[in-house]
Specification:
heterodimer; A: mainly alpha; B: 330 residues; alpha/beta; 22% strand; globular
Chain lengths: 117, 330
């Protein structure tokens, strides 16, 4: 994969991990000790990350470095056979709510993988 | 086969065990987010529409709790406690809910035995009798006061529970009869209580709460929403010439109006009522000084701790984000 495409994919994964967990760019910037615009550039693939920054991000996002750089495919949990749950709901789950459950299951698996490392 | 009574006792004793471990310090509500996090279960808040909350397990041992951000803080807290109940009580999670069209139980419906067990657990964890009594003792409320919906409303704010959940917790703790709890829960228009407390100030939205705060709340954390109003009643400690002054350096609150408390009987100690509204969400100190404006001579000073960030928003809980962003303080 060309380097700029790789960088852009890494940026997208970082942005996705950050927004899902509810961190602002400002918070991530302070955590890494860089400016907010540096985080913005990282996420758009216009700035690379050094190994220390990657390690810190994997710590903040509680996922493995491999997962951030794309060497490990994020856990595929789209098969509901792997997920058990008990829900408190006002109605039958919409497709959007089901997607949220699947995304959360992926987060749980990714977090566990890092803990097991 | 266990009986309903045995299951209720089991849920209550497990809730008591967890409550003891994380008993509130310097606050009147049980810190459910902190407890669940320390017990090792990740929490995520997301904008799910119909799903209030879910306990999810993936493969071997990755378990966590998902909670909606479409409801207020009191519902988020009760849902968290309810989901923790499923985990602590060892309820069997099912593998078919994502694909089947099974009807799910909503709040207030009878539900399955497991749902009822989780509700009992949640109520016992967030409003055990000793916590209710502790708040009541401090506020000088007795059991008779709980027939007053305004008192029940103020109790609900301090416990971080909905008005309805508080009514039922009072009945469960035998501080109200079931009949009274049902009547108060069904017949009370909470918005009318809020309007009466805040009048003539108009609340910015119908979700905003009104905290009636007195010196009994000094030193405790008041967990407000961003649009809540605080009605502070303070006693005059000295003779004429002293005024209550709110220290505004913190920038979190501003005084909307100040007036004498007209409910005081003639000859009683004079009181002032101040209504404050929040200007910025955050953790604030609310400091009031009773002093002579011209000389600065101080007769009394009271301080309240207020957090007015309200419900959790999309993402990890605020507590967890803070710990992750400041690992040294964890």
């Amino acid at each position: 994969m060309p380097k700029d495409v790789e960088r852009m994919t890494l940026g997208t994964r970082i942005k996705d991990a950050r927004t899902y967990r509810g961190f602002s760019q400002e918070e991530v910037a302070t955590f890494l000790g860089v400016s907010r615009s540096s985080v913005s550039l990282m996420e758009s693939g216009q700035r690379g990350l050094d190994s220390l920054e990657l390690r810190k991000l994997s710590q903040l996002f509680e996922c493995s470095i491999d997962e951030l750089v794309g060497e490990t495919v994020p856990p595929k949990t789209a098969q509901s056979s792997n997920i058990a749950m008990v829900a408190r709901a006002a109605a039958r789950l919409s497709d959007e709510d089901r997607k949220e459950v699947l995304r959360f299951a992926q987060f749980l698996q990714s977090r566990k993988r890092r803990k097991d490392e | 086969m266990t009986t309903h009574r045995e299951r209720t006792l089991h849920a209550a004793s497990e809730a008591a065990r967890i409550f003891d471990r994380f008993a509130p310090q310097g606050r009147t509500s049980f810190d459910i987010v902190r407890a669940i996090t320390i017990l090792g279960f990740p929490i995520m808040f997301r904008p799910t529409k119909d799903l209030l909350g879910a306990t999810v397990t993936v493969g071997e041992g990755a378990r966590g709790i998902l909670v909606t951000t479409k409801r207020g803080l009191a519902i988020q807290r009760f849902t968290l406690a309810h989901e923790l109940g499923h985990l602590v009580l060892g309820h069997k999670l099912r593998f078919d809910l994502l694909t089947s069209d099974e009807v799910r139980w909503g709040p207030g419906e009878p539900g399955t035995q497991e749902e009822r067990g989780a509700d009992t657990f949640a109520s016992e964890l967030l409003a055990p009798r000793r916590l209710v009594s502790q708040v009541a003792r401090r506020q000088k409320w007795d059991a008779g006061n709980f027939r007053d919906p305004t008192i029940v409303y103020q109790l609900s704010l301090r416990l971080g529970l909905s008005f309805q959940a508080t009514c039922w917790a009072l009945a469960r703790n035998r501080l109200l009869t079931e009949e009274s709890a049902r009547r108060i829960s069904n017949e009370t228009e909470v918005n009318h209580i809020k309007l009466a407390l805040a009048s003539p100030y108009e609340l910015p939205d119908s979700w905003a709460d009104v905290w009636a705060v007195t010196e009994a709340d000094v030193g405790l954390l008041l967990e407000c929403g961003p649009n809540d109003a605080v009605v502070l009643s303070v006693k005059d400690h000295a003779s004429a010439g002293y005024l209550w002054d709110v220290e505004e350096s913190d920038g979190g609150f501003e005084v909307v109006f100040e007036k004498p408390d007209i409910t005081e009987s003639y000859g009683a100690e004079a009181s002032r009522v101040l209504l404050l509204r929040s200007k910025a969400a955050g953790n604030h100190r609310l400091v009031l000084r009773h002093k002579r404006p011209w000389s600065g001579e101080l007769a009394a000073s009271v301080e309240f701790k207020v957090t007015n960030m309200g419900k959790e928003v999309d993402g990890l809980p605020r507590y967890v984000k803070r710990e992750l962003l400041n690992p040294a303080s964890a």
